[in-house]
Description:
By secondary structure, this protein is of the alpha/beta class. About 40% of the residues lie in helices and about 15% in strands. The protein has helices at about 5-10, 15-25, 25-50, 70-80, 95-105, 125-130, 140-145, 160-165, 190-200, 255-265, 280-310, 335-345, 405-420, and strands at about 85-90, 115, 145-150, 170-175, 205-210, 230-235, 250, 315, 325-330, 370, 385-390, 395-400. The chain has a 7-stranded mixed sheet, with helices on both faces. A 5-stranded antiparallel sheet has the order 8-9-12-11-10, covered by helices on one side. The mean pLDDT is about 95. The chain binds pyridoxal-5'-phosphate. Pyridoxal-5'-phosphate (PLP) binds near residues 176 and 214.
Amino acid sequence: MKDNLRKHFNILPELEELATDIEIDSRSIFSRVEDLVNYNQMRVLAALQNQQLSDWHLHGSTGYGYGDMGREALDKAYAELMQTEAALVRPHFVSGTHAIACAMMANLKPGQKLILASAEPYDTLEGVIGMTKAPLANSLTDMGVGYEVIPLKNNTIDLLAVEKAISPDTGMIHVQRSSGYASRPALKMHEIAQVVQTAHSKNKNIIVFVDNCYGEFVEEIEPGAVGVDLLAGSLIKNPGGGLAISGGYVAGKELYVARAAERLTAPGLANELGATFGQLRLMLQGLFIAPHAVGEALKGAIFTAALFKKIGFKVSPDANAPRQDIIQMVQLQGPEQVIAFCEAIQASGPVDAHVRPMPSQLPGYIDPVIMAAPTFILGSSLELSADAPLRPPYHVFYQGGLTYAHARLGALMAASRVLQLST
Ligand SMILES: *Cc1c(COP(=O)(O)O)cnc(C)c1O
């Protein structure tokens, strides 16, 4: 690296040498990622070709959005890719939480019970479920839906406890594929398959729901392939490919997706209305880019795991471990290091690099959170970003990177900054 650039980005020279060694050692791990990208790129191309995607699909609709064929092609392509009967992909979902809440709330009735099979859900869902008080009494709990949290056993789903918790009023089993802010590893598809078998052997009407955030295109199959009934995710994460400017998706059995559509719009309107505001090209092109962008993010996560392990920190997953999401956890040694790490990621980015991230209380989150998101799309976490709740054990979550070169640079800057603190 040229001296002036090394200085600009504040990178320790000894880490640069380490980076070269890591990349030599990581060749076979990177080539596994490339195999995955090759496969998922073909899956996405086939799904778009199966819709005979044409230029006129890309422009979208105005007003009511009747007969928006680009929107319908997008829904069908997602259904094929998520391996489900139907999908609802909309810019009208304000976030992943909104898509998840819509899918869950549309498919649970008063008196039914929700089982949380992968223990506590992602922070923003606690308000949706009613685990924390919802100020306007609009949570699932307020609606009269009960819930039961099943703690993990040996860091994975306790199938026997899930089976025991199932009763005649069980309406849904929630499973979160990614680790989110928890310290457990992400779930493997065969573990999700076991939940489906457990639930459906008791009662095939129990809806197995998967929060698919951060999991899309990280494996060769998606949850629909193992019989998951309903899933949802965010377009400013993996499947938006860094291009979708907002939105979310729900996919699953026809009836369950139709209910979500009625909840998003209105009974009777369902999925037939909803102008796409000129966003179709970005959503479709983003989907086309998504397998590649996920691959870049995965390589960045692998590099970060190897780098921080080499300089003495605990990481999860390890560099050579199989991955089920794009998140890399690094365990730091206190709030100063967490802040330094996030400041460095912020300083590495293309947008708002001069801005200093500060820990703050965010709607839906319990502890103060620091977020580094030097991104083109605000809060997009398929773009290089890092976040951490400021609480022991000081886990920082690093994810994304539309290009590996940027992800690698961010990791080198974060490691340099953390090492400079302790000297
Ligand atoms: C990001 C995320 C969500 C919520 O998505 P938002 O778009 O931030 O609302 C839900 N679950 C998991 C596991 C996530 O990573």
